[in-house]
Each structure stands twice: as C-alpha cells, then as structure tokens.
Specification:
By secondary structure, this protein is mostly loops. The protein has 8 helices and 6 strands; from the N terminus they run ααβαααβββββααα. It has a domain of 199 residues. The strands form 3 sheets. A two-stranded antiparallel sheet has the order 1-4.
Length: 375
C-alpha cells in the first residue's frame, strides 16, 4: 500500500521543465518504473503506441514518458487549468491543483491498459467535465459517434492487418467503437479559441480548428494516394483521424509528441523540430510517396501527389515555376527532378492553408469548398 506521508506531500513542485523526479509530483510517487513508494515496485504504464498499437514500448511509466524529448509541460498545464495563464472554455481548477488532474480524476479513473479494447475502463476525464469519466459512454464519447458518419478509420496494429486499439479485428466499425473520441477530449483545450502558452516553445500553441481541417471533420478536395487500411477512392472525402493516431498523450522521443510508431509501423526518422526534413517519415506512414506509385521515381518525394492531376486534384501550384519554392539544380517537372524537396511542415501543419491560385492576393482561408486548407 502507499506510504501514508503522501497525504501530506506537496501536489506539484512547480518545476518549469523536465527532467522530472518523483518529488516533483505526488502522482510520480507511484507512477514510476522503479523506486516507487507502492509496495512491490512501480506501476507499469507503457506509452499509448505500445498499449493500444502493439508497438515496442518507448516508456514503461508515466514519469518516464514525461521525461521524453517532448511532453505536456506540467508547469504550463497547471497554470492553464487553474486560470493563471491563457484563456479557456471551462471553469478554472482550484489554485494548487495537480496538473495531472486536468485530464484525470484520481477518484474515478479506471485502467483500460488492462483491456485496451474496453473503453468503459477509461482513465480520462474532460477538463470541462472533471467529475465524470470520458470515453465510457457509447456512442457519444467514441470514435463511432454519429457525428463522424463512419468516417473514422482506425489505423493498423503493429505486425498485423488488424486495427487499433487492441488488434483483435479488421472491422472498422468494431474498432472505432472501442476508441474514445479523443478529438472531443483533446479539443476541450486545443481548439480554435483557447490560448495556451508553451514554456518549452516560448510562444502560444497553434490553435486547432478540427471542424474544418482535412485531417479532422473537413473534407479533402479530391481522392489521394494513401496506404492501407485507408482507401484512395471509396466512401466520402471526409476521413477523420483521432489525435492519438499521430500523437502520444504524455511524452515522446519525437518533437510535438509525435508517435514513434504510426499505422502499424515505425516512423523511419527522428523528428526533432518543426522544420525537420524527417517529417516525411511520419507522413509516409499513411501517404504514398512517388516510389510507391512508380518504381522509377524517387523515394520519399511527393511530386505526384502535389503536381499530378492523376494522383491528386488539389493542385495549388503551377508546373514550370519550380524555383518559386524549390532550390537545387534545374531539372524537369517530374518525379525524377533534381530540385530539392520541401520540408512537409512548410505547407502542412495545424491551421495551414495556401493562397487561391486564381487570386494570390487573397489571404482569407476558405473552408467551403476546401480549396486552400493544407492539413
């Protein structure tokens, strides 16, 4: 059983950055791999990709996850939920609240790690509804909710054609019904109106308009070339992702909490910053590159997706004007061009859009139709 002195411990030390130690948060006294004050050792909590995606564990405890390269900064989180910083759409937590309580209610949280396909065992509570669990109600709190109209396609489980979150079925609807609506959960904070300051980045976080983004509820402009289990030309143009399809909730070796394994496979490179050239390794887990389409093309290049009407109808840039965007030697406008490829995040990120090709001076985003949204 837990040491009795924990009842008198400070909830959170106020440290501004990781690495964290057990003394920084009362939660870490037990949620640690080793040296836990819980009899019998620490509590194993593998990272999301391992627990719900079958991946190799990157961290085996909550504290270990928070000590990764990118993480939810607990100092910022405490200031945000208590109203000391930023703007939000829910009632402030009392001063001194432990930052972990922003997403978890310790008195009612369960442990769905024991049964990843059973969301009634959810451990999370929305900040705006702290006294109730989130994800246990069906279908309103699941990725099978009618608001998605069957548009959520769970990604693949590692080493299998089956799907997350437990790898027990290939059926889209079955697996979506096992997945909490992480979009509704995360956008309780990360939405288009709230202001959240990041000590780590030294700026406010980008706002996220999930209702209009293409990876959210917004529609694509045309069918594109994608890897399974996604299909390029069936159903509607409105695939919806869950935040956890790409992001870890606590911490990750990659920047911006990007998962190390996505859609059943390893992200091939380490993503260290917003402008890292290796972002294409993440995109390639779902989007086909030129070489996947034609063996004579270059690997990890996306000429066909951006400049070929055959593989994508949303063509914001004219051919023959390569040097307006690309550097490098001159070459033909083809998938074998010697021009340098562009970092994916030059054009694709939360809130990104491009100018109307017919009117470059128009800077107003246009979501209906979605001719300029690029994420």
């Amino acid at each position: 059983m837990a040491d009795g002195h924990l009842l008198l411990a400070d909830s959170f030390s106020g440290t501004t950055t990781n690495p964290y130690s057990q003394s920084d948060s009362v939660c870490f006294a037990c949620h640690a791999c080793v040296d836990s004050l819980q009899t019998g050792g620490g509590i194993t909590n593998n990272n999301y990709s391992a627990t719900f995606g079958g991946a190799t564990a990157q961290s085996a405890s909550i504290m270990a996850a928070f000590n990764k390269t990118s993480y939810h900064n607990l100092y910022d989180l405490q200031r945000y939920i208590t109203g000391a910083g930023g703007t939000k759409s829910f009632t402030s937590f009392p001063t001194g609240s432990n930052p972990c309580s922003g997403c978890h209610n310790v008195h009612i949280a369960k442990a769905n790690k024991r049964s990843p396909g059973d969301p009634t065992l959810t451990a999370i509570s929305k900040p705006s509804d702290h006294d109730n669990l989130f994800g246990d109600d069906s279908p309103g709190e699941r990725m099978s909710d009618t608001i998605y109209n069957s548009k959520y396609q769970p990604p693949r489980y590692v080493g299998s054609s089956n799907l997350e979150p437990d790898g027990l079925s290939t059926d889209r609807a079955t697996q979506a019904a096992k997945t909490p609506d992480y979009n509704e959960f995360c956008t309780d904070c990360h939405n288009s109106t709230n202001t959240i300051y990041s000590t780590t980045l030294g700026r406010n976080l980008r706002t996220i308009d999930w209702d209009n983004e293409k990876h959210g509820k917004g529609n694509a402009d045309s069918y594109i070339t994608v890897d399974g289990p996604f299909t390029p030309a069936s159903g509607s143009l409105g695939y919806v992702l869950a935040c956890t399809d790409c992001h870890e909730p606590h911490g990750s070796p990659n920047a911006f909490l990007i998962r190390k394994e996505v859609n059943g496979g390893v992200v091939g490179g380490s993503i260290t910053s917003f402008s890292d050239i290796d972002w294409h390794h993440l995109c390639d887990r779902c989007h086909q590159d030129d070489k996947e389409l034609y063996s004579s093309c270059q690997e990890d290049h996306y000429y066909l997706a951006h400049h070929s009407a055959t593989y994508g109808g949303d063509l914001p840039y004219s051919l023959g004007q390569c040097k307006n965007c690309h550097t490098g030697d001159k070459g033909s406008s083809s998938c074998t061009s010697s021009f340098d490829k562009i970092v994916c995040t030059n054009c694709h990120f939360h809130g990104s859009w491009v100018n109307d090709p017919a009117n470059p001076l128009d800077k107003t985003p246009n979501y209906a139709p979605t001719t300029r949204t690029t994420f």
